[in-house]
């Protein structure tokens, strides 16, 4: 579930680096946001978006990817959800 989120953010031209993504995975591994989508939204936005001009695109992508989902990452291993870079980041 989380890898499509990363891909969708990159496709929407939200500049998300691999380092930022790994920080989010570490935060998820430490259960900093719990499993509620609302809590994950705030954590992921704080970790992944470094310029407020990208908030709207982030919100649009988040809404599409997590529409109808109430919990995030339940039963998933965040360590296996590391995307391939392929972008020279």
Describe the 3D structure.
- The protein is an all-alpha fold and 89 residues long.
- 51% of the residues lie in helices and 0% in strands.
- It has helices at 2-11, 18-29, 37-48, 55-65.
- α1 runs antiparallel to α4 and α2 runs antiparallel to α3.
How would you summarize the topology of this molecule?
Layout: H1 2-11, H2 18-29, H3 37-48, H4 55-65
Keywords:
89 residues; mainly alpha
Give the DSSP E fraction (strand runs of 2 or more residues): under 5%
- Mean pLDDT score: 83
Measured as a percent range, the helix fraction is: 40-55%
Report the total helices: 4
- Element-level helix/strand string: HHHH
* Number of separate strands: 0
Instruction: Label the structural class.
Output: mainly alpha
Unreliable stretches covering 5 or more consecutive residues: 78-83
**What composes the largest sheet?**
none
Give the N-to-C terminal Cα separation: 22 Å
Rg value = 12 Å
What is the 3D shape? globular
Brief summary of the model shown:
With 89 residues, the chain is an all-alpha fold.
